[in-house]
Design goal:
Layout (H helix, E strand, L loop, with lengths): L4 H8 L1 E3 L1 H8 L3 H14 L2 E6 L2 E7 L9 E2 L1 H8 L11 E2 L6 H11 L2 H7 L9 H10 L3 H14 L7 H8 L18 H7 L16
Antiparallel strand pairs: 1-3, 2-3, 4-5
Helix pairs in contact: 2-3, 5-7, 8-9, 8-10
């Protein structure tokens, strides 16, 4: 007898890979792919990753509501070659999350992979004045400046004006770690200039060029 949608959703609820789906449903890979495709069309599946990264399928027992606008992880996944698996579903009600706001939110997470993926957003910035004001409000100006310089070593970005660069350099009372306890063996000049530990080494950044 054909298994019901409700039964399949109970088995698969949560974050899965295609291999895990095969095991949970005890089916061949081709059947697992077909099931995921069916559930996606019905509105029960969100997909992340892919390319050189594992593809993940987050499966819900109720249809996904698309009320509101994309959250931080969606903005990063739409604009960065480094894709993130969403730990939760976030929707922004009443406004759209700007690239500038997404960068600051990413820095505030202090999460290695989130900050790394968000470096790609530096080539999407439209308003450096707005970005600076947001960084000032959240007290992450030096972190922002250090990450801006790292991003410029890897991808093409719009140059920030000298006024805002100087204001960021003069900011005080920030912790030296962008990601707790993470120090780079590279970018020594940037770390010294900004008095800030860069969490990434050069080899971590190659995927931003894809």
């Amino acid at each position: 007898m054909k298994e019901s949608i409700e039964s399949i959703l109970r088995k698969l609820e949560g974050l899965n890979t295609i291999d895990l789906i095969e095991r949970k449903l005890n089916v061949k890979r081709s059947t697992a792919i077909k099931k995921i495709s069916e559930l996606r069309k019905l509105g029960y599946v969100e997909t992340s990753g892919g390319g050189k990264q594992p593809r993940f399928y987050r499966i819900y027992r109720v249809k996904i509501s698309k009320i509101g606008n994309p959250g931080l992880y969606d903005i990063i996944n739409q604009n960065s070659p480094i894709k993130l698996s969403k730990p939760f579903e976030e929707r922004i009600i009443g406004k759209k999350l700007s690239i500038e706001e997404a960068i600051i939110r990413a820095i505030k997470t202090e999460n290695y992979r989130v900050v790394l993926a968000a470096l790609a957003l530096f080539n999407k910035i439209k308003d450096y004045s707005r970005l600076y004001e947001l960084a000032k409000k959240e007290n992450v100006r030096r972190k922002l400046g250090a990450l801006y310089e790292v991003a410029r070593r890897v991808i093409r970005t719009k140059k920030i004006d000298d006024k805002h660069l100087k204001l960021m350099l003069n900011a005080k009372n920030e912790r030296k770690f962008i990601v707790p306890h993470a120090k780079s063996k590279d970018f020594k000049d940037i770390q010294k200039r900004w008095n800030m530990y860069i969490p990434f080494n050069k080899q971590d950044l190659w995927r931003l060029k894809e």
